[in-house]
Amino acid sequence: MAKKQIHVMCTAFRDGFQSVYGARVLTKDFMPAVAAARAAGITHMECGGGARFQSLFFYCNENAFDMMDTFRETAGPDADLQTLARGISVVALDSQPRDMIRLHAQMFKKHGVTTIRNFDALNDVGNLIFSGQCIKEAGLKHEVVVSCMELPPGCTGAHDPEFYEMTLRKILDADIPFDSVCFKDASGTLVPSKVYETIRRARKMLPEGTRIAFHSHDTAGTCVIAYKAAIDAGADQVDLSLAPCSGGTCQPDVVTMWHALRGTEYELDVDIEKVREAEDVFKECMKDYFVPPEALAVEPMIPWAPMPGGALTANTQMMRDNNIMHKYQECIAAMGEVVRVGGFGTSVTPVSQFYFQQAFNNVMFGKWKKIAEGYGKMVLGYFGKTPVPPDPEIVKIASEQLKLPPTTENPMDVDDRDPKKGIAAATKKLQEAGLPVTDENIFIVGACGDKGITFLNGEAKVNGIRKVEPKKPAAKVETKPSGPASYQVKIEGKLYSVTIDGTKALIDGKEYDFDIKEGTLTPAPAAAAAPSTTAATVLTAPMPGVVLRVNKSSGSTVKQGEAVLTLEAMKMEVEVSAPADGVVTINVKKGDQVATGDALATIG
Fold it and tell me: Comparing 519 with 446, which gets the higher pLDDT?
């Protein structure tokens, strides 16, 4: 008897990159692997969208549309190239107005995409109606999504087969046009028994012949079992990856799943020997990239803090960049509470990022002392309706800190009125910057904000791509003759020139004596008169990050509470405000990496 063919979508070149490398991979480095996948007969590939849109502008200094064009050329004209969209957020972290949602579908169609998988992290079906219509109107296939995860132990009220059945029923009742349905578990936490029951119910509800896909990650170590449960219940497709971007925080490897189905009534629709050859090419392509150890591991604690594979490594990469990786376990532990009180939005971008940002803030600043903007807007209703009402106390805190009232209004109506969003706002920014006003540039600025302008101005740089450093020969140590030694010493943000010569010290041109007795440095009385800085107030960095904007110039006056600089950390913008009135002296520039406590400016 012929075995049932299970269709494979290869996620290696989108979700694989996001889940291992924080989406930071250069196009030229992996295109030979795309060609090898084509040669292996893989015809359905995830090629972009999600984090692989913004990351190209933010980290790779590449245009995502150019990458998509190159991908289409390499994969061939017949390949089904699929991208990931976040409903009303499309490929941004914030929600978008209707004109940008429509432009997203049109631009992705223009640049070689065939199918868009479209999800809403809150499972608010209202957020899928317009975006789904735009995808179909652009001539693309629409794969509508039910977003899944397991709630932390002890939580109930959503994310069970009844909830997913209800969500799918709402999709059908809303008459959303779609070509296939995906159940997407970005954190890899949904238990196999729930997977089976969910897919079984969906199979009965959907029109005959509708393709059902199941997507998960191996972060919790149960993905292969969950995939087998989905297949047994009637799923037609599972998402699989290729080594070295497989297992751990990624999807299981094609070879692993092929092996798991041996001796069953199912088989994957791939030539396994050709897939192995393609993996050899892919491994060679990626050999110079640093693989974070957490990307390869099963994390048993993920069910208590459902962090998606793609968000997990993206966040650890950012924490490494900011030298705060030692705080990671605290942030993961804090995430469980953030999920419990936040209304049970699915832990998938952008909500997974909101969860982690709020957990991060709770660790760095104290519980609920600083509400992350995305998390706060979510519990207040600005991304739609959460599966269950958020904790009222958290809603109150968010409203007070963000100075926003709770809302039940359609988020697209809110965004359509926002003068800072949409095609008109992006057009104005391009014109002010003297840049060409094209549909591509409009969408880049709408999705990437000021960083889009930076890229289009040619001011962006490749940054944050981690590659394995080649071993360098040991440095030759040279012995310098003794004599006067000069130093630059920073005290409370002010630099001093210090020269030491014997028992004399020259500090900013003024001479001091000091004595050395039995290894103890004893300043002479003259040395006690160090330059005074009591008149200045030092403005320090409240957290590690990169200087995103310098709002004031040295010599300008500031008022207490006025924003002096803006830092970016963990995809959040943090304004650093003046603690007092005065004249400001700026010590940093745009693009500088700073640590907690670094002196950013002085106010005198």
Answer: 446
Q: Which two tokens stand for residue 244?
A: 């070295």
Question: Beta partners for 566?
Answer: 549, 575
Q: Mapped to the 3 state alphabet, what secondary structure does 284-334 carry?
A: HHCCCECCCHHHCCCCCCHHHCCCCHHHHHHHHHHHHHCCCHHHHHHHHHH
pLDDT of 527 reads 43
Q: What's the pTM?
A: 0.82
Strand 44-49 to 80-85 pairing: parallel
596: confidence class by pLDDT, cuts 50, 70, 90: confident
> What are the distances in angstroms from CA 559 to CA 401, 470, 516, 578, 588?
20, 49, 46, 7, 20
**219: closest CA among 257, 182, 252?**
252
Torsion angle defined by CA atoms of residues 199, 201, 202 and 204, in that order, rounded to the nearest 10 degrees: 130
Torsion of CA 437, 438, 443, 449, to 10 degrees: -30
* Three-state secondary structure of 560-583: CCCEEEEEEECCEEEEEECCCCEE
State the pairing for strand pair 141-148/510-517: unpaired
- Residues 422 and 99: beta-carbon distance below 8 Å: yes
Per CATH, domain 4-297 is 3.20.20.70:
yes
Strands 504-507 and 510-517: antiparallel
The residue ranges of every structural domain in the chain are: 4-297, 485-528, 537-603
CA atoms of 52 and 12, how far apart (whole Å): 12
Residue 484: which residues within 8 A CB-CB, separation 6 or more? 499, 500, 501
Give the Cα separation of 28 and 39 in Å (integer): 18
Distance CA 149, CA 174 (A): 23
Write the CATH number of the domain with boundaries 537-603: 2.40.50.100
